[in-house]
Every structure is written in structure tokens, then in C-alpha cells.
Specification:
It is built from 20 helices and seven strands. Helix 9 packs across helix 11 and helix 16 packs antiparallel against helix 17.
């Protein structure tokens, strides 16, 4: 039996072995083109655990033959950052003429303080290093703007069932341990459900099944056995703290499902588990916007205020405003109409491209623009009764298209009636 975990034994070394993220590394896609050209710009990989962020960074370094340095934002300080950058400078000087720039991979970059992130700016801007960051948190909240402006953000998605099936087949046929076992796959529903789009979880579960099956016996993969083994040993699929994501998922779904008692329970689990309170508060702000939205716009204000209060009073007292916010959000009416509306509009923009702005809506700061008709015939709403007048605001070809569908709650029904009174539809 190998001492290395299966997930480490199966770590891909080339893009052809890499599973998932076809929108980034598939034929002709942005990261594959970047790698094939040998000219890799700084970027940040944002996605859940177990989807290949670290692996992808290593594959890139190996493919373009670049020196590869890693830092973990959990343990590294400004001093360690500067020491690594000094080593990168030495590498850059020694291979300036024909070698690839050193790659600095920073795991959990969202945990870096502002001063730590500031210490990276000069090296990234001057081209001393190519920065590849990895984060499970939204970079727009956690990464400083100057660094974001120098590094493109690419979003990684949870692995789909086809990807998980590919990983399973590779592990059973290519792994030196599993390929020697007599394995029978009866069903994969539970296996894929527990994996939850996470390659590491899938491989950890397979590791557990293999290690708990005596040598010489047939190793069976079916829903009943997978569930039983994981209930006996939940740590098998929680290596590296992935349970964090299961609990936050249960927390969010309990609030969305309007169950304040369950939501408070999951909050208590996170409090006792040492979760970052600001992570919880940030998720509440997102939830207030996404799942409550226009049904109760005050929810967003309360969630944001809770975040501010938490930062002011600190911990452990901060658990109290968090609890108040959780109960309020869970008890609030729910709507995702604004969330659906903006996604529908984005899909239309991507499908139809940049449609021209109607002339009467265009800004006309110069005489030439006015002569060309910019702003002509625009009707200033405040000059009309009720501060409203009908005119075209959509681009040509999209008149009458609706993106926002009001949800069935009093707040949005009032908005919908006002819309009908104005536009007659």
C-alpha cells in the first residue's frame, strides 16, 4: 500500500491529464492559449476547494519551464513574501534572455492582509514574477484593487458528474494501488453526491473504501457502502477542512429555506469551530442581496450594518449581532428576482454583443456630438407629470424585452403595479 494519499498519487502533471475547467483549458480557451504561447500573465483562480487550482498552477510552471515558488497566506508574512521575491529577482536576472519569468503561487490569497498584498505590487508590476493566486473567496471583496487591476480573475467551477466519472475511471485503471484491486462499481450516486464536485473528496472517499476493504476481497462501490463508510469515518472526506464548505452550505440553505432555528444551529457550529466571523458576515450580505432582494430591501441594509458592527465590536460579542441578523434574514420574505434579472440581461448581452446606445440617450459634451444628434429629443423625466414620460431606453431591437419578473410578494407586487401604470404592460 502506498503511503501517499490517492489524491496526491493521481495529481495530473500535464494539461491533457487535467480534468474539468474546459472553459479555461479546453482547446482554444484562454489559459490553454496562454500556456501554449509561453507568455503567462498574472491571474487569480477563484473557485471552491478540490477543483484543481494548485494543480493547474503547477502544470503551467512545468509546461513553460518556469521556476515555481509557493506561499500559503495562512502562514506567510511580509518578511516571507519579500524573501521569495528576492529569490525570484535572482532567477529573473539569471534567465532574463531566454527563460520564463518565475511563477509565485499564493494559496488562499484572500487571507493576505493589505500590507502583505501591497508588498507584491512592485514585483508583479515590474514583471519580476508572474503571480498566480488561488482563493475560495470572491476576490473583489478580499483582494486590493491595485492588485486586481494587475491580475485577471478566472472562475473555476465544481466538477460535473462526467468529470467525476472520468476521475473515477482513471483512479481505478491507472493508480498503482487501485488498479491491482478487484473492484466492482454498482452505483455512483452516493459517491458523486458526497464528492460534491470536489476531486479531492472523491479520491479521499475511494482511498477510504480501498483501505477499509481487506486485501484479497472484492472492493465494492455502491450507494449503501459509501454512505455507511462515510458515516463511520466522516474525516475521510473532510481532509483539509472541506467540512467548512458543507456547513456554510447548510447555513445558507437554512436561511434561504426560512428556518431560523436550523440557521442558528449552523451558525453555532461555525462559531464553535473557529470560523472567521467576517466570512460569515460577508455571506449574509450576499444572501440578503441574492435570496431576499426586493422582497425586503431592508435586509441588505441590516446585513451590511451587521458586518460593520462586527468589525467595530470584535469577538466574541460579535456573535450576537450575527445571530440577530441570521434570525431576521431567515424570517424575511424571499425573492431572487433581481438576481435572475441581471443574469438574464448578461446572457442577452453575451448573445447579442454591444448593441448601439440610442442617439437620444447618448451624452453630448461637445458641439460635434450635438451636431451628430447625440442627446437630441431626450425627454427629461422631471419635466413631466409624475416625473415620468414614455420613451425608448432599450437599444433598437430589444424594445419590449423583459428581464425582471416580479416575485409574488407585497413589495414587488407594488413595484409591478407601478410599472403597469407607467408602461401599460
Amino acid at each position: 500500500m502506498s503511503s501517499k494519499p490517492l489524491a496526491e498519487r493521481m495529481r495530473p502533471q500535464t494539461l491533457d491529464d487535467y480534468v474539468g475547467q474546459r472553459h479555461l483549458v479546453g482547446p482554444g480557451e484562454i489559459l490553454r492559449r496562454m500556456i501554449e504561447s509561453g507568455r503567462v500573465a498574472s491571474f487569480i483562480l477563484w473557485g471552491p476547494p478540490g477543483v484543481g487550482k494548485t494543480t493547474l498552477a503547477r502544470i503551467i510552471a512545468n509546461t513553460i519551464k518556469a521556476p515555481f515558488y509557493t506561499l500559503s497566506a495562512v502562514s506567510a508574512g511580509v518578511k516571507e513574501v519579500r524573501e521569495v521575491i528576492d529569490r525570484c529577482k535572482a532567477d529573473a536576472r539569471s534567465m532574463f534572455s531566454d527563460g520564463a519569468r518565475p511563477i509565485l503561487f499564493i494559496d488562499e490569497i484572500h487571507r493576505f492582509s493589505k500590507s502583505q498584498q501591497d508588498s507584491l505590487l512592485g514585483a508583479v508590476e515590474s514583471g519580476i514574477v508572474t503571480l498566480i493566486g488561488a482563493t475560495t473567496e470572491n476576490p473583489s471583496f478580499e483582494v486590493i484593487r491595485p492588485l486586481l487591476s494587475r491580475a485577471q480573475v478566472y472562475t473555476l467551477q465544481p466538477l460535473g458528474e462526467d468529470d467525476l466519472a472520468t476521475l473515477l475511471n482513471r483512479a481505478l485503471t491507472l493508480d498503482p494501488v487501485l488498479s491491482e484491486r478487484n473492484v466492482r462499481v454498482d452505483s455512483t450516486t452516493a459517491l458523486f453526491r458526497f464528492a460534491g464536485g470536489d476531486a479531492r473528496k472523491l479520491l479521499n472517499i475511494l482511498d477510504l473504501l480501498e483501505q477499509s476493504t481487506p486485501e484479497g476481497e472484492e472492493m465494492v462501490i455502491d450507494d449503501k457502502l459509501v454512505t455507511e463508510r462515510l458515516q463511520e469515518n466522516p474525516a475521510a472526506y473532510d481532509k483539509g477542512g472541506e467540512m467548512h464548505y458543507d456547513i456554510i452550505s447548510a447555513f445558507i440553505k437554512s436561511i434561504r429555506g426560512s428556518d431560523p432555528d436550523a440557521a442558528i444551529y449552523w451558525l453555532a457550529r461555525m462559531v464553535e469551530g473557529g470560523e472567521d466571523p467576517e466570512f460569515i458576515a460577508r455571506r449574509l450580505v450576499i444572501l440578503a442581496c441574492e435570496d431576499i432582494g426586493l422582497a425586503n430591501p431592508q435586509a441588505m441594509v441590516i446585513a451590511n450594518t451587521t458586518f460593520d458592527i462586527l468589525r467595530k465590536i470584535g469577538w466574541p460579542e460579535g456573535r450576537i449581532p450575527l445571530a440577530e441578523c441570521v434570525v431576521y434574514l431567515a424570517s424575511s420574505p424571499k425573492s431572487n428576482s433581481a438576481y435572475l434579472a441581471v443574469d438574464a440581461a448578461i446572457a442577452r448581452v453575451r448573445a447579442e454583443g454591444n448593441l448601439p446606445v440610442p442617439l437620444h440617450l447618448r451624452n453630448a459634451p461637445t458641439a460635434l456630438m450635438k451636431k451628430m444628434g447625440y442627446g437630441r429629443d431626450y425627454k427629461y423625466a422631471h419635466d413631466y407629470p409624475g416625473h415620468f414620460v414614455r420613451q425608448q431606453f432599450m437599444p433598437d431591437g430589444l424594445q419590449g424585452v423583459r428581464f425582471w419578473t416580479p416575485a409574488d410578494n407585497p413589495s414587488e407586487q407594488r413595484m409591478a403595479q407601478l410599472h403597469r401604470d407607467r408602461w401599460g404592460d
